[in-house]
Design goal:
Elements lengths: L2 E6 L6 H14 L4 E5 L8 H4 L7 H7 L10 E2 L5 E4 L10 H15 L1 H5 L3 E5 L18 E8 L3 H17 L4 E9 L2 H13 L4 E6 L2 H8 L4 H4 L4 H14 L14 H20 L9
Parallel strand pairs: 1-5, 1-6, 2-4, 2-5, 6-7, 7-8
Antiparallel strand pairs: 3-4
Bound molecules: adenosine-5'-diphosphate and magnesium ion.
The site of magnesium ion has 4 residues, from helix 1.
Amino acid sequence: MTQQIALYGKGGVGKTTLAANLSAALAEAGKSVMLVGCDLKSDTGILVHGRQEVATLLDYIRSGGAVKLSDLVVPGYRGIACVEVGDSLAEEECASRGIAKALQLLGEFDLTATLKPEFIIYDIPGEAGCSGLVSHLNLSLQLRTFIVTSGDLMSFYAANSYIRSVSRQFPASALDIIGNSLTGSFEESFVADFASQVNTRVSSLIPRSLVVRHSELYGKTVIEAAPESSHAQLYRKLARQVIEDRSVWQEPPKPLSVTELRGWAQGWGDRLGELEFGILKDGAGI
Ligand SMILES: Nc1ncnc2c1ncn2[C@@H]1O[C@H](COP(=O)(O)OP(=O)(O)O)[C@@H](O)[C@H]1O
Ligand SMILES: [Mg+2]
């Protein structure tokens, strides 16, 4: 049975990089993978197929027959089938509505019927309003959600709201946190504590690394460009978790209220102050 995996998180947090590397690691392990990019930038498959411009689902809809349905599936590394939803249908329309329509159509065309992938990976854009897109995924298939966050406060805010909407709309979804682009043990602890505050667990903690940037500059995933690197191993470990369906999530997540999130962040501000400046909670220097 096909397993759906959706990656959510604030823009720039590393969803596309993760989606591409997870797809590559799954393909390397012999799994059939479809990678669906829902971002207006249509950039999800670039690291997998190396092409800068591909026909998107919305191009197909608008083309009146010039673009064929088969043109939409771009083969990439080890046979990964890449599909991009594309930019918004109408300029005046909010991006998330355009993408929602396209996702609905994707289901109607049922590109997966012929491909029958074992895994479909959705790279969900970070724009406001896109959290609701989960309701346009195929509800009859199993869904596993990864909420990606870095160690910065705004990405925790975004993660918290994604947790709220995904758990409301898709309560059966297994939901884990991935910490990405982390700059040290402080940020790792910050992410791990956030996960426990919202009653979820951490699936992976991925450090910030030049290997990721280096591979991106060559237009490739880390799995392909730096297969021996420690980051390639981290992506393979994530793929193994997905293959073995080891969800670490046990109970329903509990998103924080804004006040709770602010209070929690301030607690970490105190700790950071003590570490960096030697300032105790009451502001006294040590
Ligand atoms: N672990 C990492 N270490 C260093 N750079 C990273 C890491 N993960 C992602 N990046 C870089 O961060 C930038 C944004 O990543 P991207 O995947 O496009 O984010 P998103 O899809 O969430 O907007 C890219 O330049 C990417 O190479
Ligand atoms: Mg992206």
